[in-house]
Amino acid sequence: MEYEVVIGLETHIELDTDSKMFCACDARFFGAEPNTHVCPVCLGMPGAMPVINKRAVEFTIMVGLALNCSIARHTFWERKSYWYPDLPKGYQISQYQRPLCYDGWIDVDVRDVASGVWQEQAERRRIRIRRAHLEEDTGKLTHAGAYSYVDYNRSGVPLIEIVTEPDIRSADEAYAYLSALQQIVRYLGVSSADMEKGAMRCEPNMSLRPKGSQDFGVKVEIKNLNSLRAVRDAIAYEIERQTRILRAGGTIKQVTLGWDEARGVTVVQREKESAHDYRYFPEPDLPPLEISEAWLEAIRARMPELALSRQDRYRRDYGLSAYDASVLTAERAVADWFESALAAFAADDGRLAQRAKTVANWVQTEVFRLMKANGLSPSQINDIKVRPAQLADLLRLVEQGTINNNTAKFVLEDMFATGANAAEIVQAKGLAQMSDVEALRQIVNQVIAANPQQVAQVRAGQEKVFGFLVGQAMKATKGKGNAQIINQLLREAIAAADDLPAQG
User: Fold this and answer.
1) Residue 503 — very low, low, confident or very high, per pLDDT cuts 50/70/90?
2) Which of 6, 378, 372 shows the shortest CA–CA distance to 208?
């Protein structure tokens, strides 16, 4: 029997606010000594009263808008009770009955990422969002042999929980969804979404059912996933494991599983709790949350254009490939930098598509190459000394024939190191391209005279040899010759060399 997987994802994302959700403690705790970013409120001391972090509410609404959610105008807080050592109050302040954001959706491009081969055409899938609500994070437990240690620095940090409908049908779709979600919150500037640091954590809920059936199978939840790859691999493993059990006539138990990265297997942690086990009831120490129309519209006005929309626009308006559009929009900083450079380069005429491709190529090859060599990631593009308008000036010098492409690469290296403008570098170092036709004609004639055999080969149809003659002419100009003029003059000289016998 053939089976299909049904997956829903619960994703927790820490918000990048200065203070915690319900107290004034510094929320930037990563790398700090354990239990140094705490106070009576986030430690759950008797009599300590919580206060709502307004920025965390705004960040959550921004995420909800990006996920096409409806925004609740009236909501309230609830206590979610459970007793773990990493939860100092014995309950978590959260939302259950009335989430701040609900009934949304997100479109994702699904590719076979496991193959390692870029697919220009991707399947676009819509994943529905059931809810996105705001809550506080727990502390962190570390297990070492017979001992367990708890660090409450993370306790009380604002956290968004985003829950999808069971719309995901493969490990690759789950990977695509999480990649898109991570990209969205980074574009919004509300979270680093760094899974290795715990700023984004995902828990797949999945089941298998006979293909074509509308009934759900027995659901399992997978925890301890600290990378996009781990999510994809854990789901793929569970699909294979459950398929083996079902085909052998066995049954699946509803459990919470952990992911053992080293062995590449899931392991049982505990039986799965149900919602009623948490004993939700309204939080008595916090007022209801009212979202006014004016407040909502002010937040909406700050929303940036997101990556998928930019990709579609780059392909439609600039004629870029899906690959180029994807690379350029992967980081908001890169997309903004690229558009600024293009605006400066294409401001004077209508050759937008042609110049967009030129700028895209230079950003993805030369700019990224220099950044990588200097230990910078694409997200740090605003830290480089070359400004977008300076790259545009450099490309204009190439287009005008002042310098050639090879010289331009050398000039960009100098710009990257010093921040100087391209024209200043070209003038100071005498790098201007040699475009004097008569001077180049003399050099071409010398090349023709010195290489009669190669000239004859070209005339006989051996076109590859033509590149050798071009190279000789460029060598004579010390790389400064205008390649376009040299090519033209060589063609004319070879065609006129009638006294040389053609060789077959």
Assistant:
1) very low
2) 6
